[in-house]
TrEMBL record:
The protein's name in its UniProt record: cysteine desulfurase
Reactions catalysed according to its record: (sulfur carrier)-H + L-cysteine = (sulfur carrier)-SH + L-alanine
Stored Pfam families: Aminotran_5
InterPro entries attached to this UniProt entry: Aminotrans_V_dom, Cys_dSase_SufS, Cysteine_dSase, PyrdxlP-dep_Trfase, PyrdxlP-dep_Trfase_major, PyrdxlP-dep_Trfase_small
Family, per entry: Belongs to the class-V pyridoxal-phosphate-dependent aminotransferase family. Csd subfamily.
Enzyme Commission code(s) on record: 2.8.1.7
Record-level Gene Ontology MF annotations: cysteine desulfurase activity; pyridoxal phosphate binding
Classification via Gene3D superfamilies: Aspartate Aminotransferase, domain 1, Type I PLP-dependent aspartate aminotransferase-like (Major domain)
Example GO BP: cysteine metabolic process
Length: 398
């Protein structure tokens, strides 16, 4: 079975363009849209507390979506809170844990983080007088694990991305997680670029909190994200948002929170989004994570080989076992945006810029990159077309 051809039938846009911008957002298969349409057209109602049958049906499907999501990452049902996206999940994590820190406590992260897994910790450190320490690493994105062990000693919290959206490097999250646990540190994982592309299990990763978005790897809709909260932190993690749906009892001067996960979801949630996310997860599971990972590895291998042959500088680990389906490169002296515009003229969609990872760009001494990123519906034929356009572009500059 040729996976791309089977999946491409469900995604009309793949017939019109070569879509290599999956790190920003993936394309959506018809079954996901159909699941959301069914909610909006056949049982549109608010969830929880409603007695009428439409509300009962909506509640059932919404909570089934939570169950599917939990199982997908090895979590318990009540450990899954739905949010808007990864950024919101990580911000909520920092805000909800604010009360456990005291002045001088240490937070450890890496120089490769997306801004969404850096800025919340920077702000928390400034606000509370905490120490923010950065694990050393090289220009390919490889972490210095000896330095990690040293920095993590005495840490209160460790936050790390699973896969770099800028360099495509797959970090040793399991090993870092073990180090954090040995120190009694809270371990936070940004899994925005790994969920839906490779196996992610919160227990194997030793994650206490883990965040991802529905619209990336899982091929779900925008506006739905996930925050995994390990059960032992339910009484430690203070919900940053409270109100409708989060309480068990209220009087004029006090309130009592309800049990998780509802205590973490104030107001009406993105019901259609959660249902769409579950449909995306089921779609991913039907294909098989192992097949997705193998397909992306083939695409990365051919892309990096082709760019090397063209003498086009590309970034990220040379050990392709550590390289996820993200390839960043430049075509000097052109600006990344100019290269992306040329590729767009040939119906090839890529991302260009600093990718919300300015410290990475500063570390490499560049102002940005062109980024081609893949999913299972991309093919070797598309990569060859891309490399053909790149060859013509490079020739025109020499």
């Amino acid at each position: 079975m040729r996976i791309p051809e089977d999946v491409r039938k469900d995604i009309p846009l793949t017939q019109e363009v070569i879509y290599f911008d999956n790190t920003a957002t993936s394309l959506t298969p018809k079954p996901v849209v159909e699941a959301m349409d069914e909610y909006y057209l056949k049982y549109r109602a608010n969830v929880h507390r409603g007695v009428h049958r439409l509300s009962q049906k909506a509640t059932h499907e919404y909570e089934k979506a939570r169950e599917i999501t939990a199982k997908f990452i090895g979590a318990k049902f009540e450990e899954i809170a739905f949010t808007k996206n990864t950024s919101e999940s990580l911000n909520l994590t920092a805000l909800g844990l604010e009360g456990i820190f005291k002045k001088g406590d240490k937070i450890v992260t890496t120089p490769y983080e997306h801004h969404s897994d850096l800025l919340p910790w920077q702000r928390l450190a400034k606000k509370l007088g905490l120490k923010l320490e950065i694990i050393e690493g090289d220009n390919e994105g490889n972490l210095d694990l000896a330095d990690a062990e040293k920095k993590i000693k005495g840490a209160k919290l460790v936050a790390i991305q699973h896969v770099s959206n800028a360099l495509g490097v797959i970090h040793e999250v399991e090993e870092i997680g073990k180090m954090a646990k040995e120190e009694g540190a809270i371990f936070v994982v940004d899994a925005a670029q790994s969920v839906g592309h490779m196996e992610v299990n919160v227990n194997k990763l030793h994650a206490d909190f883990l965040a991802f978005s529905g619209h990336k790897g899982p091929m779900g809709p925008t506006g739905i994200g996930v925050l995994y909260i390990r059960e032992e932190f339910f009484d430690v993690f203070e919900p940053p948002l409270i109100g409708g749906g989060t309480i068990e009892d209220v009087d004029l001067y006090d309130y009592k929170l309800t049990e998780p996960p509802e205590r973490y979801e104030a107001g009406t949630p993105n019901i259609g989004g959660a249902i769409g996310l579950a449909a995306g997860i089921k779609y991913i599971e039907k294909i098989g994570i192992d097949k997705i990972e193998k397909q992306e590895h083939k695409l990365v291998k051919r892309t990096t080989e082709g760019l090397t042959e063209l003498e086009v500088p590309w970034y990220g680990p040379r050990d392709l076992k550590k390289h996820a389906g993200v390839v960043s490169f430049n075509v000097p002296p052109l600006h990344p945006h100019d290269v992306a515009a040329v590729l767009d003229e040939h119906n090839i969609m890529v991302r260009s810029g600093h990718h919300c990872a300015l410290p990475v760009m500063k570390k490499l001494g560049i102002n940005g990159t062109v980024r081609a990123s893949f999913h299972v519906y991309n093919s070797i034929e598309e990569v060859e077309t891309f490399l053909g356009v790149m060859e013509e572009l490079v020739k025109s500059l020499r």
